[in-house]
Amino acid sequence: MLEEDLEVAIKVVVVGNGAVGKSSMIQRYCKGIFTKEYKKTIGVDFLEKQICHNENDVRLMLWDTAGQEEFDSITKAYYRGAQACVLAFSTTDRDSFEAIEKWKSKVEEEVGPNIPLVLVQNKIDLLEQAVVEQEEAENLAKKLKLRFYRTSVKEDLNVTEVFQYLTEKHVQKTKQDAELEPETTAPIRQIGLFNTTSANSSKSNNKNGSSTPPGGETISLQPSKSRVASKSKNPFSRCKFF
After folding, report:
1. How far is it, in rounded angstroms, from Cα 39 to Cα 122?
2. 174-193 pLDDT, tens per residue?
3. What is the C-alpha to C-alpha distance for residues 109 and 94, in angstroms, rounded to an integer?
4. CA–CA dist 156, 62 (Å, integer)
5. How many independent structural domains does the chain possess?
6. Burial (CB count <10 Å: 0-12, 13-18, 19+), residue 157
7. Fewer CB within 10 Å: C terminus or N terminus of the chain?
8. Which domain holds residue 65?
9. What is the pTM of this model?
10. What pLDDT, in 10s, does the model give residues 149-173?
11. Pairing state between β 84-90 and 8-15
12. Which residue intervals of the chain are DSSP H helices?
């Protein structure tokens, strides 16, 4: 398979308290649909979306995880292998905002601290019901050093941008990791040790006392004494290995 035929696949987990709009976000992005009816996610849900990024095919595998604590032991298992993460809270749910650092820690415990993350404030179409100030959300993003998006799944605002950003961050991280890996070279096999001697060694010194063989002189290769000695003591020296 040619390198240009390889497909990039990214596992993205969407985490946060229940009812913040995680399932709706994935449905909107993958299927372009939105429903007002709330249906609690039991354990995990999964959708895929094929996109083109920098002329390369990318398959996003989006995992929607339940936000209720009774499913915690189940959902944590699905964090493993994640390559990007959405931390979501709702404009109308103060507890979901205050739980963001807890969700971040849970994900990083399973996959490490270097996973690309993004902070998302959903339901900004309900600003009249807001219980989280915009400045508070921006300060949290600065504290956690995360990119911050304010989204409305209902209005399809900034949803696509969230996943485009995570795709870009994953691609950048992959390139950086590849550049940091030490180059591997095949080991050099030492066939033997040889002494170089002149066929006319007695004539090798010219009138100026130089030890450089004169032009036209033949150079022969002979095994070194240490090589011959070690070989004679080796009972398997005449064996051939294939």
Report:
1. 17
2. 888 888 876 544 444 443 43
3. 24
4. 17
5. 1
6. middle
7. C
8. 7-180
9. 0.70
10. 999 999 999 999 999 999 999 999 8
11. parallel
12. 22-31, 72-79, 94-98, 100-111, 134-144, 159-180, 225-232
